Structure formats: C-alpha cells, structure tokens
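Service request form, structural biology core

Requester: graduate student, group of Dr. S.
Request type: structure prediction, single chain
Budget code: on file
Notes: please return the result as structure tokens.

Sequence provided:
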Amino acid sequence: MNNQPMIGTDLEFKITEGTPYIFLAEDDVDDQSLLIEALTTHAESLIIHTATNGKKAAVFLEALAESSLPCLIVLDYNLPEIDGGELLQILSSIERFHSIPKVVWSTSNSPKYQQICLQLGAKAYFVKPNDVDGIRKLAKEMLSFCDAIKE
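Core staff response, request fulfilled:
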C-alpha cells in the first residue's frame, strides 16, 4: 500500500467512500503547506482535501453524501468570500455535519472570534503558531479529534 499522503488541492479528485480524510479550508498557501506537512508527519498515509476559500469549501461540503464525510474539518477563520465563522454557521444547520469535529485556526487571538466559533460548534479554536515545532504540536492535537486516523 502507498504510504504517501494524498493531497487534493481545491477539490481536484473524488472522495473514496469509507476512506477517512481531513478537509482543510485555508487560503494562505504557506500555512496550508506547513499544516499539511505537520499533519502527515504524524499520520503518513493521511488524505487531505483542501479548498482555498470559504465559498469553495461550502459548495464542496454541502454536496457530500453522508457516506463521504470527512473525519475532521479544519477551517481558517479569515477565509475569503465566506469566513470560518460563517462556514461553521452553514455546517451547524446541516444535520449530517453535527457529529463531525470542526476546528478553527487563525492568526487572530480575538476572544470574540474564539467565542463565535465555539458557539457555532467548533471543538477548538487555535491561534496559528509562529514556528514549525508549534505547528507540529498543533497538528497532533488536531488529529486527536479524528478517531478514524491512527498515528
């Protein structure tokens, strides 16, 4: 079996039913790359699907069948078009997403943003670390929310 991570940038390939994966909505390509690298350090064969703005993320997630949901949704708070808080609000109105853990990561440490996200169903709100070691630790914590992925 191939142990290389599979990365689907801007939703370029189809979901394989029953295969656990993480959905990441992040517009900053550097932050996206750093987080993907950190996540795959802890789980080598991890599959990650990405979107670079909130609208693409919403369209993709809303179209998913019950059998093709991610095991974890990671949202940047400051996404273009639809921000992370708005995405959480959309997802909270769709019952099939209620049991999917959602986490937000952001450059902002605003208590207001944190409160909004947690009230809208995020399991956690993380401030983006400034160093690679911090991102690796954060990635490990994010993976702890996804029961289907074993390190």
